[in-house]
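Issue: ligand-bound run for manganese (II) ion - logging full I/O for the record.

Environment: standard queue, default settings, no custom constraints.

Inputs:
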Amino acid sequence: MSTTNEALRQWVENTAALTRPDNIHWCDGSEQEYNSLIDLMLKRGDLIRLNDSTYPDCYLHRSDPTDVARVEHLTFVCPQSKDDAGTNNNWMAPDEAHRKMDGLFEGCMHGRTMYVIPYCMGPIDSPYARCGVEITDSPYVVANMKLMTRMGTAALRRIERENSFVRGLHSTGDLSPERRFIMHFPEELLIQSIGSGYGGNALLGKKCHALRIASWQARHEGWLAEHMLIVEVESPQGERHYLAAAFPSACGKTNLAMLIPPASMPGWKVRTLGDDIAWLHLDGDGRLRAINPESGFFGVAPGTNQETNRNAFEMIRHDTIFTNVAVTANNEPWWEGKDEERPAIDWQGRPWDKAQGPAAHPNSRFTVAARQNPGYSPLTDDPAGVPISAIIFGGRRRELAPLVYEAKSWRHGVLVGASVASETTAAATGAVGVTRRDPMAMKPFCGYNFGDYWQHWLSFGDRSKNLPKVFHVNWFRKGSNGEFLWPGFGDNLRVLRWIIDRCAGRAIARETPIGYLPRPEDLDLEGLEIAPAVIDSLLTVDKGSWRDEMTAIAGYFGELGSRVPAELLEEHKRVVKTLA
Ligand code: SAT
Ligand code: MN
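Outputs:
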């Protein structure tokens, strides 16, 4: 196979001349292709077959132990102007970055097969979808891209029709952290990644294309590419709402997107459209419509069980690739939180020994096609996407942020999003549990200057009177004894219910300086055993702490330089005044 698209043909040829693979394989996206790649990886030892009677067609991949998460310090955004990347990104001059990468890619595929993966982010016939081509020497990447994206012949045909695509070149190189870089050239719609085989570093359709490059494109084309799940909530009366929610990596987006209603909320239904990325466009009525550019999940395994996420637990019982989980004596995958069994072999292939740390890597993952989710919404494939009623921001914050509050306006909502802070997780290398600013949960993913990004967000306020309401939630508030105050998981539907009722103009709220909050009696707490005092503290706004927070936010905006919009700073001033 090859292509009628001259630009693609040329690029593949030039890339082969640089990287010198033994073979070139054009991926058609078929089941046969997937199966033969799995066989190849089983033979090579890149995959281990898991228990075929309890976990049919499930495999374990153990990555290099130094290659287990995104590497933000080795990820660069390289437009011509450093200011366009912003201080929120690492920047390298594009000439220098190209020289460096060309040197690293030189001959790197010698002895390997080069795979050419045409893919489409979004429903194949959606006007909102965008295509890309990833070239890689990793069959693991090909198999994951097959589960995560619409890849193969149909995508190639669309590329040939449109003559436009994002180029992504990836090689695992020698996996040395010294020669590991993830480079983005937004002006060239080009991604180059070497030295890592791991998730967000290597599956270039995901964070590299669908967030970093797409956010750049979206700014110029008037839409938004966001780190958001998309979930459908249906009331017992059959009223449906679509919510988009942004949380940092490993803060429960997959669990919220796949929520199972508590028994005390009969008749409520929740369906999943996406768990990680949303592309949002204004429609003719000024509503924001969302599509999920992906078609699979790359979810965090630890903590997933019958109670926390029953749908996910069932979804990953077949046709799933696990990365860096442990295995039981029965050759089943195992991770912390899967309490009914015990691990025998840890994620590095060693006999399990508690003294050596967790059995599964804290950022161990499952890759699975979204269709396997029992809560899959067929609207995921609707080319027109779904109209969003509410945008929800959230972070992992043991203090300060109440369970939920509603922004007073779009402009205030942009400030709330820009101020998101969260404790770091194992999804990226580095210290875990440190609170840092993570605006719109896009700190690692915004492909341009945060100042310009917020200006772009604010501009939607001028373009539509029909925008979603904006909320902030915090499931992670802790009491003085270190225990979580809110049960989370299925019970989060109680908060979503209030959000939906606010959107529909039904629910009452009390006004506070930081936004509108429910009174305890405004939340559906039926069947939930929680002390009134706990609810009170979950819904408390401590003015003094919020004054400190606003000072910290001002400091953060100050660090980001002159492009932070005046309108955002004015909004900040307004909130500060109400806190006085
Ligand atoms: O490694 S990924 O970027 O794909 C997952 C995540 O960090 O959200
Ligand atoms: Mn993510």
